[in-house]
């Protein structure tokens, strides 16, 4: 093989390696932080045929049942995370998985944190997508956040199920 041809092959292989190392299509993540801007885990969002699957582990949280929601803005300014806006609700529905006029696209089942302060998350939702052009896309131009609340979500009461203060937040990012 001629030296120029060998260089071309090596360059093509290097480019292929870079492409393979990039994040797969249909995947996003959220680096979760508390009000003191300390890491408390990571969540992975993955496209499924029926919507999005959210998986990951969170730690250093208060034990108990907590509401978790997608919020309308991709901003997590602590310590109270109000910059994330309200629940992600492009269809203008009522709050709660048990509300006959609901739910918001951002509503998800409660999570239960053990005495260790850890929780493994495995939630599937058909109400959102990773398609940035879709009305229910969580990767739109102003972004979306995942927020964990201080208390359990009652799954019925507007606007947030009486789930209390926002204690953890993460901006959803592609890849």
Can you walk me through this structure?
The structure is a single chain. This protein is mainly β and 175 residues long. It has a single domain, classed as Immunoglobulin-like. It is built from 1 helix and 9 strands. The strands form 2 sheets. It has a 7-stranded antiparallel beta sheet with strand order 5-8-9-1-2-3-7, with no helix packed on it. A two-stranded antiparallel ribbon has the order 4-6. The longest helix is centred in the N-terminal third of the chain and has 19 residues, at 3-21. The protein is globular, with a radius of gyration of 19 Å.
- At CATH level 2, the architecture is Sandwich
Q: Note the run of SSEs as H and E.
A: HEEEEEEEEE
CATH class: Mainly Beta
Strand order of the largest sheet: 5-8-9-1-2-3-7
Name the helicity range: 10-25%
CATH fold category name = Immunoglobulin-like
Shape: globular
Tally of contiguous helical segments? 1
Unreliable stretches covering 5 or more consecutive residues: 4-23
Mean pLDDT over the residues: 88
Q: Assign the CATH superfamily.
A: Superoxide dismutase, copper/zinc binding domain
Distance between the termini: 38 Å
Largest sheet: 7 strands, antiparallel
State Rg.
19 Å
Produce the secondary structure layout.
Blueprint: H1 3-21, E1 27-34, E2 39-48, E3 51-58, E4 64-66, E5 68-71, E6 111-113, E7 119-125, E8 145-149, E9 166-174
Antiparallel strand pairs: 1-2, 1-9, 2-3, 3-7, 4-6, 5-8, 8-9
What attributes does this structure have?
single chain; 175 residues; mainly beta; Immunoglobulin-like; 7-stranded antiparallel β-sheet; two-stranded antiparallel ribbon; 1 helix; 9 strands; globular
């Amino acid at each position: 093989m001629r030296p120029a041809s060998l260089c071309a092959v090596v360059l093509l292989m290097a480019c292929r390696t870079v492409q393979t190392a990039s994040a797969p299509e249909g995947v996003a993540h959220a680096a979760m932080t508390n009000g003191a801007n300390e890491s408390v885990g990571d969540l992975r969002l993955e496209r499924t045929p029926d919507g999005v699957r959210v998986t990951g582990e969170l730690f250093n949280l208060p034990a108990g049942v907590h509401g978790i929601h997608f919020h309308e803005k991709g901003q997590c300014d602590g310590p109270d995370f109000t910059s994330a806006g309200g629940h992600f609700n492009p269809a203008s529905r009522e709050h709660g998985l048990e509300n006959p006029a609901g739910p918001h696209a951002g509503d998800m089942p409660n999570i239960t944190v053990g005495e260790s302060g850890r929780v493994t998350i495995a939630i599937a939702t058909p109400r959102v997508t990773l398609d940035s052009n879709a009305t229910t896309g969580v990767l739109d131009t102003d972004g979306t956040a995942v927020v964990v609340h201080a208390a359990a979500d009652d799954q019925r009461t507007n606007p947030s199920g009486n789930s209390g203060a926002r204690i953890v937040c993460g901006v959803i990012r592609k890849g």
